[in-house]
Amino acid sequence: MNIIRNPEIKKSLLLQLVLAILAVTMGWLHDIYTALCLLLFSVIYMLIHYLFTVRRYRKLKQLSLELDSMLHNNTPIEFQRYHEGELSILESELSKMTLRLSEQATALAHDKQFLADSMADISHQIRSPLTSSNLILSLLMEQELPSDRRRQLLRELTQLLSRIDWLVESLLKMSKMDAGTVTFKSKPVLVTELIRQAAEPLLIPMELREQTLDIMPAELRQQTADNFSAEQLHEHSNTAEINKQGHPPQFYGDFAWSTEAVLNILKNCMEHTPIGGQIQVTFSQNAIFTEIVIEDNGPGFDREDLPHLFERFYKGKNASKNSIGIGLALARMIVTQQNGTLKAENRPEGGAKFVIKFYRNYHT
Known about the structure:
Blueprint lengths: L6 H24 L1 H42 L11 H56 L6 H33 L7 E4 H9 L3 H6 L3 E6 L12 H8 L12 E4 L1 H18 L5 E8 L3 E8 L30 H10 L3 E7 L5 E8 L5
Parallel strand pairs: 2-4
Antiparallel strand pairs: 1-3, 4-5, 5-7, 6-7
Helix pairs in contact: 1-2, 3-4, 4-9, 5-8, 8-9
């Protein structure tokens, strides 16, 4: 490294040289010995200054090379070797920068892998119904196809297209939440109205499965076990249950998005509840949170599946053949982004249990 090319070093040496000449000249006016002493002192000072400057710039060059190596080859930097003056300050800032860069690199690698896995899962989930749809369309093109068989194929095609539509819509919702473009409203949400609205699209499928839906406040669950059919659900859910403070159970959140979350949980329970089974929804409210508990009397969860139930595209051992594995993941995203929690467990008597808690905001 030719340090003399550095403009700052040139200016510094020039200034020192001018000062040395002035000092020697003034010493010469006094006597020759004083001039020689000042000359010797000036030369020694300039030499020492030059050596220290060269040493500092060499360290800076080494640090620059190590930073370049870290950025391109992920080689760690040994910062403990830099312990002097301004270099220690620079070391501190660079330590923070490299730590942040390392964390960002790790996060980007994780996101890249997650994106690759998600794209593979999405393509698989969409490819399967599309392949079946193409097969059905080829069969429907046969002119001699019996009318009964044609109607059956049309029903299957409709189900496949509905499945693709639901998958794409759910993925779009999750993508919006991942990108932070969803703005959740914060308005009073009546729990009974929320449950009624969420259960409404499932009334006919539940009736075909001869399933019953129980909705009641938690404190009354031990006292009554009223079963409500699809026709009775609307009338019951419009009755606002009163809590101890004299107010209907509610929380502050987004009604539409909360309905989506509860709907996905109810749908999961419906699909895993046997024909003639029962789904129970209880709710309560206290000074800290509003709680909604959804239970079924199906097979419950396998112990190995419990830690992964809310992962995207995860399908447990007891999952139905039409399960995609994003309904519960979407439900948790919606709940957590509204200052809530969602967890799943097995009931002691058998079946699945989902517990939703929306924590109070004290402006309510």
